[in-house]
């Protein structure tokens, strides 16, 4: 059967372009005994794809985690219609032996596909959002690394995105004073609906002035999704022995390959030293052993109505490159996904 995939055709300079990716048709191998044929249903669109595009060899498949449906099976434990989750990249279809770990993406660790857990009637797409990687990143990146306490002040940057919107809500579950920064007025409105105590459009205000209003006693915990000037300004307002979870630095991803420019992020060392901060960079993969416990906790919050979500869904597998460009431009609120519609 004929399948489609997207390869990295050119090294992006600055903001990626649709032409940096090449759509390719391929003839899939036949499904042999023990194998299954998967068809993509939802593909995750994530900022990390931008910095991976700096190092992936040209011609490589672009990475993504995918919710896929079994459309042909020669494996006794998988039947047509079952849903799985698998990291096989920007592909419409994939033939795999579910017993064997595989690495469809250059440089990524081998993984096995997983049968999609039964979350009890919730939308399957949540396995890529609040009940998946962004959820676990938010939950453990906040609670395991920053010792958050009731009454403390938490700042979240990238607050209306997949990870940030969950971090802020967990901050409220923990009874913290939660402040979020996001890039549009409508995102700010949504953050207020989610229960953030304060939310600001960072494109319109001064971060330092906003923190004077919302954190008069300083910031105790900072969950950083963006880096750059926003983070410098937050670091400068942190209390002595404040804690920082360094999750991402999206403000610099488009400039990573440009060695002619000075680093985008102003030095954070001085406020980090002056305020004696504990700073934890992390990758969510460090918690693979506790992943399902985290998902259960998140599902519990969701079922109690304490965790709300939004998804920005781009329709059509062919629009994968545009959906990726849009996430870097801030067009998404909540989790960015492509619904393949194959
Ligand atoms: N460490 C880990 O294991 C791990 C795991 C998952 C994600 N991450 C990181 O966490 C961050 C959030 O990921 P996500 O999946 O939740 O993405 P996301 O926040 O849903 O989407 C990215 C958002 O970044 C914002 N943005 C883009 N350019 C920006 C800039 N120059 N300055 C400030 N904000 C900018 C945009 O929102 P605005 O409209 O608000 O600008 C955009 O919507 C990313 O940095 C990602 O790499 C890390």
Automatic annotation (TrEMBL):
GO terms for biological process: prostaglandin metabolic process. One of its GO terms (cellular component) is cytoplasm. SUPFAM superfamilies: GroES-like, NAD(P)-binding Rossmann-fold domains. Gene3D superfamilies: Medium-chain alcohol dehydrogenases, catalytic domain, NAD(P)-binding Rossmann-like Domain. GO terms for molecular function: 15-oxoprostaglandin 13-reductase [NAD(P)+] activity; 2-alkenal reductase [NAD(P)H] activity. Its EC number is 1.3.1.48, 1.3.1.74. InterPro entries: ADH-like_C, ADH_N_2, ER, GroES-like_sf, MDR_fam, NAD(P)-bd_dom_sf, PTGR1. SMART domains: PKS_ER. Pfam families: ADH_N_2 (PF16884), ADH_zinc_N (PF00107). It is found in: Cytoplasm. Residues 14-338 form the Enoyl reductase (ER) domain. Keywords: Acetylation, Cytoplasm, Fatty acid metabolism, Hydroxylation, Lipid metabolism, NADP, Oxidoreductase, Phosphoprotein, Prostaglandin metabolism. CDD domains: leukotriene_B4_DH_like. It is an enzyme of class 1 (oxidoreductase). It catalyses: decanal + NADP(+) = (2E)-decenal + NADPH + H(+); 13,14-dihydro-15-oxo-prostaglandin E1 + NADP(+) = 15-oxoprostaglandin E1 + NADPH + H(+); dodecanal + NADP(+) = (2E)-dodecenal + NADPH + H(+); 20-hydroxy-leukotriene B4 + NADP(+) = 12-oxo-20-hydroxy-leukotriene B4 + NADPH + H(+). Coiled coil: none annotated. Belongs to the NADP-dependent oxidoreductase L4BD family. Monomer or homodimer. This is Prostaglandin reductase 1. It comes from Apolygus lucorum (Small green plant bug).
């Amino acid at each position: 059967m004929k399948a489609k995939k997207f390869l990295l055709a050119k090294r992006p300079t600055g903001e990626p372009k649709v032409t940096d990716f090449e759509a390719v048709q391929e003839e899939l191998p036949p499904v042999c005994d023990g194998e299954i044929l998967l068809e993509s249903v939802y593909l995750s669109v994530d900022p990390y794809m931008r910095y991976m595009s700096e190092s992936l060899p040209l011609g490589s498949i672009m990475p993504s985690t995918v919710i896929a449906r079994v459309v042909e099976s020669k494996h006794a434990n998988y039947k047509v219609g079952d849903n799985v989750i698998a990291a096989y990249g920007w592909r419409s279809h994939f033939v795999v032996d579910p017993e064997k770990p595989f690495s469809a993406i250059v440089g990524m660790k081998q993984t096995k596909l997983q049968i999609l857990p039964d979350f009890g009637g919730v939308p399957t797409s949540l396995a890529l959002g609040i009940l998946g990687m962004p959820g676990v990143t938010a939950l453990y990146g906040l609670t395991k690394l920053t010792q958050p306490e009731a009454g403390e002040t938490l700042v979240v940057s990238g607050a209306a995105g997949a990870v940030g919107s969950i971090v802020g809500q967990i901050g409220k579950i923990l009874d913290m004073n939660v402040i979020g920064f996001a890039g549009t007025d409508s995102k700010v409105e949504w953050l207020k609906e989610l229960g953030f105590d304060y939310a600001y459009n960072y494109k319109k205000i001064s971060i330092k002035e906003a923190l004077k209003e919302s954190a008069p006693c300083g910031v105790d915990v900072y969950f950083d999704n963006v880096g750059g000037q926003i983070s410098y300004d937050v670091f400068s307002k942190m209390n002595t022995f404040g804690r920082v979870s360094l999750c991402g630095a999206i403000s610099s991803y488009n400039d990573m390959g440009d060695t002619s420019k000075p680093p985008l992020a102003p030095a954070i060392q001085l406020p980090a030293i002056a305020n004696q901060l504990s700073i934890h960079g992390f990758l969510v993969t460090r918690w693979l052993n506790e992943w399902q416990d985290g998902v259960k906790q998140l599902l519990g919050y969701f079922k109690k109505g304490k965790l709300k979500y939004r998804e920005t869904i781009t329709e059509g597998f062919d629009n994968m490159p545009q959906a990726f460009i849009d996430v870097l431009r801030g067009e998404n609120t909540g989790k960015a996904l492509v619904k393949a519609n194959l």
